[in-house]
Amino acid sequence: MISQRQIPINRGCSSLNINRRTYYYSLKRSSTDQSDKSTRSSIHDIALEFSKYGYRRITKEMHRRGQLINHKKVLRIMREENILCKPKKKYRIATTDSNHNYPVYPNLAKDAVLTGINQLWVADITYVHLLHECVYLAVIIDVFSRKCIGWELSRRIDAELVLNALDTAIKARVHIGIDGLIHHSDQGVQYACNEYVDRLKELGIQISMSKKGNPYDNAFAESFMKTLKVEEVYLKEYRTFDEAYNNIKQFIEVVYNNKRLHSSIGYLPPVEFEAKVLNISLS
User: What angle do CA 96, 220, 166 make, to 5 degrees?
Assistant: First the structure.
């Protein structure tokens, strides 16, 4: 006679007598193990797609994909799986030459209260290492949405570099309207020269500049450059200009603008955030 605490369990041709509690615990443990494997797989997939995401952004991305999980568990799993990475450090090259005789403009950005896009753009230049040379990247960011709306890559760090980035931004935004727009940059000669200033004035854009030697005055542009370097440039070894151009284009236009979650805009990608603000459907 089988005791009340023993349950016959048929598995194919065999019959096992095991404790009821043990049986149900084993089922629960098996289900938990499968769930844990699925969670770890999802974290790896996101970390592979966004190789420099921290645990908080990975948690938010999992939520967006319908998987509810605590950020502490994501952090624990990322530590166990050894996918919390530290970026490589590179030597710095100066990209700002403020020693010129062009007029310098006051900082209008620090007191700006933003309520929508096309109110404050920030511009900056950085360098990118290739195998045998350096090239230069100029960008323009809409501070309200954090979207990179204009960029240009060149072997020369001159007025043409920043003017091309500006023209790209204008083409992307002029249909929305740029009345009252402030353009903020450092005091570098590229932004202070006559060609660039005249173009801004021609468009009716207000000119704003950081104080000399104070990068925190242009923190939004600095933040973008850091993200670009850590999540794209430092992970690659560009051999040619075309290789650098294509990879940076992919990162800015596909990953950064359309996929990467930004904590400052409610953990949304800039394109999705702007569509929400403008009440535009992305479908």
Answer: 65
186 touches 209 (CB < 8 A): yes
Task: State the Cα–Cα distance between residues 268 and 277, nearest whole angstrom.
Answer: 12
Q: What is the pLDDT of residues 100-114, one digit of tens each?
A: 689 999 999 988 999
CA dist 147 and 244 (Å) reads 20
pLDDT tens figures, 64-103: 888 888 888 888 888 777 776 555 555 555 556 567 689 9
Estimate the crossing angle of helix 71-80 against helix 55-64, to 10 degrees: 120
- Extract the tokens encoding 119: 């109110």
- Region for residue 160 given its phi and psi (left: phi exceeds 0; alpha: psi -120 to 50; beta: otherwise): alpha
Q: In what order do the strands lie in the sheet with 206-209?
A: 147-154, 134-142, 120-129, 182-185, 206-209
Pairing mode of beta strands 182-185, 147-154: unpaired
Answer whether 199's CB lies under 8 Å from 166's CB. Answer: yes
- Rg over CA atoms, the chain: 26
Rounded CA-CA distance 96/20 in Å is 73
Q: Model-level pTM?
A: 0.70
* 209 Cβ neighbours under 8 A, 6+ residues apart: 104, 105, 106, 107, 184, 185, 186, 187, 191, 192
CA atoms within 13 A on the CB side of 76: 7
- Residue 51, Cβ neighbours under 10 Å: how many? 13
Element (H, E) at 17: strand 14-19
Task: List residues bridging with 182 in a β-sheet.
Answer: 120, 206
The residue whose two tokens read 């004035």 is 201
Q: Which helix (H) or strand (E) holds 274?
A: helix 270-278
